[in-house]
Amino acid sequence: MSHLNHTVAALRDAHAGTPFGASLEYVLAQDYSARLAALQAAVDFACNLLEQHKHKKQGVDKKGLGEDEITLQLCEMLDMAGFQPTHDADIGGHCDIVVKGKNLFLWLAEAKKHDGYSWLDKGFQQLSTRYSTGTMGQDHGEVLVYCYTKDAKAILQKWREELEARNANVKTTDCSSGNACLILNAAPGV
User: Fold this and answer.
1) Counting beta carbons within 10 angstroms of the beta carbon of residue 89, is it exposed (0 to 12), middle (13 to 18) or buried (19 or more)?
2) What is the pTM of this model?
3) Is the pLDDT at 186 greater than 60, yes or no?
4) Longest alpha-carbon distance in the chain
5) What is the torsion angle, in degrees rounded to the nearest 10, for the CA atoms of residue 71, residue 48, residue 14 and residue 140?
6) Does 183 score more than 90 pLDDT?
């Protein structure tokens, strides 16, 4: 093993499980799945920071910051980490977060502040039927749900039930990361 490879391996080991580690893995990614895993880890870190300080971001109306304000904060964190997101980019419509990378990598996110399950489903429909290309290397994204309730886990469980009930071709499974997320298994064309 060359000295350079040993240095990269040591950096990876030293920073695994950290925001810098996610950035490093993204830069070093040689394929789509590695790029996607690094980005999803970075989004988890950024969302976790927002969650930790949500009590300080209530806004003037005490109802919390709006979708755009939260999304811009998330984009700023991802930008500082080297992911180069764009906010409100035109990809089949005005997608809230777009990250482009090497080899035509494209990841999309639609953000919705929880205001009922119809509103969340609207975000899912936007992402899955208008924004996503669904082609190889461009077939992953997220609906980011912002909520200021004390029991976000219950909100997400109910959203999971609603998502499957409203979209017959969608089935969900739990994420392996342990974070509050769902993996969608949709039939082609969804």
Assistant:
1) middle
2) 0.84
3) no
4) 58
5) -50
6) no
Question: If you write DSSP's letter for every residue of 36-104 in order, what string do you get?
Answer: HHHHHHHHHHHHHHHHHTGGG---TTSS---HHHHHHHHHHHHHHTT--EEEEEESSSEEEEEEEEGGG
Crossing angle between the packed helical segments 67-80 and 32-52, to the nearest 10 degrees: 120
Q: How many CB atoms lie within 10 A of CB 127?
A: 22
Report for 23-27, 64-68, 182-186: range of highest mean pLDDT: 23-27
Range with lowest mean pLDDT among 57-66, 79-88, 116-125, 137-146: 57-66
Instruction: Give CA torsion, residues 112, 128, 28, 9, to 10 deg.
Output: 70
Question: Which long-range contacts (C-beta less than 8 Å, at least 24 apart) are formed by 173-181?
Answer: 177/40, 177/41, 177/44, 179/44, 179/47, 180/152, 180/153, 180/156, 181/142
Residue 51 pLDDT: 85
- 28: helix, coil or strand? helix
Q: What value does the mean pLDDT take over residues 159-183?
A: 75
Q: Which one has a higher pLDDT value, 182 or 140? A: 140
Q: Give the whole-angstrom CA distance, residue 108 versus residue 101.
A: 12
